Amino acid sequence: MKKIILASLLSATFAMPAFAASTGGYVTADLQSLSTTNNNGLGDPGMGFRIGGGYRFTPNVSAEVGLAQSGSSSSVGGVSYKVAATQVAVVGTYPINSQFDVLGKLGMSANKLTLSGLTCSNCSKTSMMYGVGAQYNVNQQMGVRLQYENLGKTTDSGTSDVEVSALSVGVVYAF
């Protein structure tokens, strides 16, 4: 009898209803605050956005793609820059309860730095990216996500690597 009760409790724990508990596709839209290091004093790019989509293979594993674009940094000596990224990642999701999930991302990001006022011959680089976040599940189809992502590096005119990271808040809609 104890084994049956223990098995029932474990089953209930791992069968918690979560955002898009069934498999299927979803889309995302985020507002981002991007920051950079080693950017030769050009400041951080402005607020940006990301759109993406994914497919949930199991309640805990998804594949996700995204396109991100920053605003322009403040101009220093007539030079400002923007960052664009194309991302592909595996997303692991762990439900805390029916309303909250934590997630982790691991993948690749093709980053491009666009400089105004300068010729930029080598301003793109593909890097490994990772991220962590949390999601509030409004219902079975919609969630609100807060996440931090390190997008890796992009090359600044071939002279130094600029590290790019993003803090974002956005919505997820499953279909």
**According to CATH, what is the class?**
Mainly Beta
User: Would you identify the CATH architecture?
Assistant: Beta Barrel
Characterize the biggest β-sheet. 8 strands, antiparallel, barrel
* Mass-distribution shape: elongated
User: Tally the helices: what do you get?
Assistant: 1
Low-pLDDT runs: 8-20
Helix content: under 10%
H/E series: HEEEEEEEE
Biggest sheet strand line-up: 1-2-3-4-5-6-7-8
Radius of gyration: 19 Å
Distance between the termini: 41 Å
Number of strands: 8
Structure notes:
The chain is built from 1 helix and 8 strands, in the order αββββββββ. The protein is mostly beta strands. It has one domain (2-174): Porin (Beta Barrel). An 8-stranded antiparallel beta barrel has the order 1-2-3-4-5-6-7-8. β2 and β3 form a beta hairpin. The chain is elongated and about 50 Å long. The chain starts with a helix and ends with a strand. Mean pLDDT is 80; it is low at 8-20.
